[in-house]
Amino acid sequence: MRLSHLNSLRALEATLRHGSFTAAADELGVTPAAVGQRVRSLEEYLGKKLFYRTAKDIKATEDAKRVEAQLTSGFSAVADGLNQLKSRFATKRVSVTLPASFAENWLTPSISEFYQRHSEVDLRLNASNRDVDLLTEDFDFAIRYGRPTTEPLQEKELFGDSLLPVCSPDFANQYRLHPKLTSLEGVPLIHLQSRTSDPGWVGFDGWGQAFGFDLSHLSHGVRYSEISSGLQSAISGQGLVLCGLTEAYNSINTGLLVLPFGPLLHCRTQYEYRLVWVRGKTMTQLQCDFMAWILEKAAVFQRGVSNLMPTDKRD
Fold first, then answer.
1. pTM attached to this predicted model
2. Which CATH number fits domain 162-268: 2.40.50.100, 3.40.50.2000, 3.10.25.10, 3.40.190.10?
3. pLDDT in tens, the chain (315 residues)
4. Which long-range contacts (C-beta less than 8 Å, at least 24 apart) are formed by 78-87?
């Protein structure tokens, strides 16, 4: 049997269950626009409407309502089937999908510690920014940066984030950057575009406005549309980069990067990093140990951030 439009069907099932594109998007780890587009593509394929849309909400058609129970039970059956097909080696496997920049800059420096505790583990890290459906894809956990998840997913909050400028020590000396500076005229800036949908994720203009910088000198520099964090550009002395503390923390601790304006000039983001899994899923001992370890590392990280980042901002 040939089955097409699986992602669209998954979007339809989640939307029917939650009653909105936004709630379905939170569960699936994508944007509401992406959920809406998937449902529209299914409507085009079927040649019929599945939802009536207004400016305020959506309402399922009778055709859509009739298949809701079948879709929900079907996807649950698929997940059960995948679990049954796992090999006997699955008890040693822990598979995690997570953002590429998070994997590279936060997790990688400490992952050997988990291996030292569990040398027998088959740890599989899918370091990418694509959206992953935990109900139908073969991952035990997802580390996501976003809003709280909803049923049938379960989560543990890891930590939030803050945005602040970083650069190499030599770059800070070369351009005489210091905490009392109010203009970035002549300072090479590296702008990272389309990084996240977080409404609290600002660029140099938003950051500069928050701390009284001359706004006429915040738009120059290099702009990257497809890059994870910009840290390598900063470490190599190419410019001043506004990035998340989560990404820069280890490089700051090792001295590769500095906070040229001090730790006070940071903007808190609205989203948080979260460890997510399917509620009720049976876990192996190694999977439970990984969860405990990542939560332990998150707690240590939070203590380090608290020591580094005062809550008061510059007057």
1. 0.70
2. 3.40.190.10
3. 566 788 898 999 999 999 999 988 888 888 889 999 999 999 999 999 999 998 888 999 999 999 999 888 888 887 777 666 655 556 788 999 999 889 999 998 899 999 899 988 999 999 887 777 888 888 999 999 988 988 889 999 999 999 999 999 999 999 999 999 999 999 999 998 877 888 889 999 999 999 999 999 999 999 887 666 789 999 999 999 999 999 999 999 999 999 999 999 999 999 999 999 998 888 899 999 999 999 999 999 999 999 988 655 544
4. 78/135, 78/136, 79/135, 79/136, 79/278, 82/136, 82/138, 83/282
